[in-house]
Amino acid sequence: MNINKMDLNLLIYLDVLLRECNVTRAANKLNITQPAMSNGLKRLRDLLSDPLLVRTSEGMKPTEKALRLKPIVRKVLLELEEALQPEADFNEKTSTRVFRIMASDYATSTVIPRLLNRLREHAPGITLDIMTPSDVTFHDVEAGKIDMAINRFEELPQSFHQKSVWFDTFVCMMSSNNPIKNNFDIDAYLQAQHIWVSKTGFGIGVGMDPTDVQKLGWVDEALQELDHKRSIRVFTRSYHTAMHLALEQDLIATLPKKVAMVNSKNPDLVILEPPFDIPEIELKMIWSPLLHHDASHIWFRKQVIEVANEHKIKNN
C-alpha cells in the first residue's frame, strides 16, 4: 500500500469503525450519512487489501489485521490531536471555564469539597461539573470530553496520563450503642452483620453476589486470606448511605478512613481500627493525552494535588 493514498478522513473513519464495529453507529458518531460511511469502508478495504469487518452470527467482527491496526490508529490520531491543540495562557482569576470531573462517591466526599474551597478563593469564576462513574466511559475521558476522572482503578488504558492523589487505610464505623465496641476483636467482627460499600471504575454497576469473594473487594479478600468470611447484610455503592446505616445498632461499615472522618464528630458513631490487616487503597486522577499540555488543565491538576497534600499534612 502507498501511504500517500491514505487521507486523514480515512484514518478517522477506520478508528471509529474499529471501535463501533457497526457502519450505522460509526456514521452517527461522525455525523455523516451511512452511504458515506459505507463508501469509506469500501475505500479502506481496497487500500488495505483486507475486509476489516466481517459479518458473523454475533454481528460485525474485526479481522486479525483490523485488531492489529486498532491501537496503532488510535495512538496516531491522539498524538496528532495533541500536537494540534492551540497554546494559550491561562488566568485562573478571570477564567469562567467549566471543568468536568468524573468522581467516585469516595472522591466526592473527600477531595471535591476541599477543591471547591480552594477554587472559591483562587478562581471564583470556575465551575465544577461532577459526574458519577455511571455517567461516563473510558472513551469519554480519552476523547477529552471529561477533563479528569478521580477514582480507584484496577486497570487503565495505556494512553491515559495518571497521578496518585493519596493512599488510604480502612476503619470500622458503628453505632455508639453497638455493644461489641468495647471488645472489638476478630471474633466480634465475624459475628456481626456488615454493610458492604464500594464502587470503582466506570459504567453501570451490577448486582452483587455474597459468595463471589473476588468481586467483593479489599476487605473480603483480606478476610479470605485468614480463612474467614463476614456476614454481609446490605450492599451499597454510596459511602454516605453506608455511614447512615452504620447508625443501626447491629451493623458495621468497614470503609476508607478519609471518608469515615467526615463523620468523626458525630457522637452517635464510633470509629475503630479493624481487628485484621487490610491493604491500603490508592486514589488516582487520570486524564486524556489530548489535555496533557493544556495550560488550564495543568493548573487544575496542580490544584487537585495541592489540596490532597494539604489534607495529608493536616491528618498526619
From TrEMBL:
PROSITE patterns: HTH_LYSR (PS50931). It comes from the Bacteria. Pfam families: HTH_1, LysR_substrate. SUPFAM superfamilies: Periplasmic binding protein-like II, Winged helix' DNA-binding domain. InterPro entries: LysR-type_TF, LysR_HTH_N, LysR_subst-bd, WH-like_DNA-bd_sf, WH_DNA-bd_sf, YidZ_PBP2. Keywords: DNA-binding, Transcription, Transcription regulation. GO terms for molecular function: DNA binding; DNA-binding transcription factor activity. Residues 6-63 form the HTH lysR-type domain. Belongs to the LysR transcriptional regulatory family. This is LysR family transcriptional regulator. It comes from Marinomonas transparens.
